[in-house]
Amino acid sequence: MQLAALKHRTESEDSFVIDATHVRVRFHSAKNDVEKVIVHYCDNYLPLNQAKTIEMTKIGEGQVEDHWGATLEAPFHRLKYTFEVIGNDGTSVVVGDRAISSDVESALMEDGYYFKVPYCHDIDMVKTPEWVRHTVWYQIFPERFANGDKSNDPKNVKPWNPEDHPGREDYYGGDLQGVLDHLDYLKKLGVNGLYFCPVFKAGSNHKYDTIDYLQIDPEFGDKDLFAKVVNEAHARGMKVMLDAVFNHLGDKSMQWQDVVKNDPSSRFAGWFHINEYPVEPYHDPLQGEGNPQFDTFAFEKHMPKLNTANPEVQDFLLEIATYWVKYFDIDAWRLDVANEVDHHFWKKFHKAVTDIKADFYIVGEVWHSARPWLNGDEFTGVMNYPYTLQIEDHFFKHKLTADQMTKRLTDQLMKYRDSTNAAMMNMLDSHDTARILTVANGDQDLALQALTFEFVQKGSPCIYYGTEMGMTGGNDPDCRKPMDWSKEDGPVWQRVHELIKFRLDHDETFGKGTIKLHVTENGLIEVDRDGIESVKAYFNTTDHDVKIDCKDSFSHDYQNGVLAPKGFVITAR
Glycosyl hydrolase family 13 catalytic domain location, by residue (predicted)? Predict the structure, then answer.
């Protein structure tokens, strides 16, 4: 048995309280190396001869590990436990808090070998909002969704042409009135969560270079109009999420312009990470101009980075964060460049917004492993790029086999607690990436097969505006074309609508149930979801027809027991 591969961490994604009397534990071993894992457990103050046992279930197979899981009872809200591991080679060890021991009988009767859960504190549990499990998000890039009010169009606005290839400085006149006018459309499509890219006053079409966080950009409307959008969305059962750009300010902001004018004597000098003065003209290292005078988002001179360790900056940003919750009743914040802001600030942010709304949803933009932010006191979830990009690498780019993808996705699920996985925001494209139909080389069946696969995963799925219209687009800014309203109710729209409906019809299982991924002997990807019902989904990513006997609850290209390439069949019972 490979002892070095036996792993477990307390108070982490491997050991977490799920309610006052139950603790979920995970254990990891080398692939195909362990026959069984038995957990010995009891209350911290009971003698070990009263310990109970439970055999762990193999909950998934990763790249190099087998993953095991079990739920332990803690009737007195305390727990100690240890793992008896039996290898395929016949050897047995105890993996405990202090050591690994081959003297199994002795170790099982020694308290020091037991991991401890000192008390199942409700306040320390990682909780995620119930409503998120029942939400399908729709991402709106306001400048390109719909132009409902031509009176607020910027100068040199271009004609609304979905076939255009937008430049970085182009404007098409999309606004909040356009969103309000289409809320019934979004209701008809079936989505019940609206994620808005920034709506605050800024100097660009994308609005990520904020000038004033307390003002709706005049090109989009005003606060009264935004309040109406939120109220009307809520009346239709939709949640509203705004984009918080708190890593940096726009260079046209009052604060930064004061620094430009007054150098170190500016009262806002401590609001930024400034290395030397004067701050203009900017030294761009990408152009070989030496070290920049101040820190920015990437090397974007128009986005000077905020010093979120400064108490004045903290107060400023927390006022903004709470203002839109208190006075406009938004339900969620998506946090731009969230990984580059300090943890200290995000803890304050979490408390400030959840003190107003206990079930507030906080989504961080983190493109890598996000464990440090997901312990219950910072973010609810993150934009799950590391998960969904693996899906693209198999379905679209063929960089991964089906077996490689399922194993990597399983490993990814092991990084987070069950409640966190259920609250991740899953998307296959966004304002920052090429559209899925383009990545799929124009193959609509393939794009919708992958979208369906995303919809049966753990987490809250998100559709980028226009996916339901079969829109194309390369990387930013080409992925930000004006919405193609001519395709409403078309064949692609109908398929996306049916997919959203199927997800929400079974959201109790999709939102809360367990998940297991593997590849069948005949090459189909199988996704097993178990909750109040059993849902099995099969996806054919091979190049040939595959026979399968499966009740058809929802499918594409499945007939007479044969699943065609790019097809799927899902059964729910």
Answer: 139-503
Token pair, residue 542, equals 């091979």
Identify the helix (H) or strand (E) that includes residue 453: helix 444-455
Regarding whether 496 and 363 lie in a shared domain, the answer is yes
Q: pLDDT value at position 169?
A: 96
What whole-number distance in Å separates Cα of residue 518 and Cα of residue 472?
31
Q: What is d(CA 458, CA 450) in angstroms, rounded to the nearest whole number? A: 15
Q: How many CB atoms lie within 10 A of CB 79?
A: 26
Question: For 35-42, what is the mean pLDDT?
Answer: 98
CATH number, domain with residue 84: 2.60.40.10
Q: Does 409 share its domain with 505? A: yes
The gap from C-alpha 46 to its chain's centroid, in whole angstroms, comes to: 41
Phi, psi dihedrals of residue 79, rounded to the nearest 5°? -160, 145
Q: Which two tokens mark 473?
A: 């687009």
Give how far the C-alpha of residue 141 lies from the chain's centroid of Cα atoms, to the nearest Å.
Answer: 18
Contact 60, 412 (CB under 8 A): no
Q: How far apart are CA 431 and CA 429, in angstroms?
A: 7
What is the tens place of the pLDDT at every residue in 223-238?
Answer: 999 999 999 999 999 9
Angle at 426 between CA 566 and CA 226, to 5 degrees: 125
What sign does the CA torsion over 270, 273, 274, 279 have?
negative
Residue ending a domain, choose from 307, 328, 356: 307
In the structure encoding, which two tokens stand for residue 561, read together? 């027991």
What is the token pair recorded at 187?
A: 């209701």
Provide the pLDDT for residue 382. Answer: 98
- For residue 265, give the CATH number of its domain: 3.90.400.10
Compute the distance between CA of residue 82 and CA of residue 497 in angstroms, rounded to an integer.
Answer: 48
Catalytic residues: 336, 365
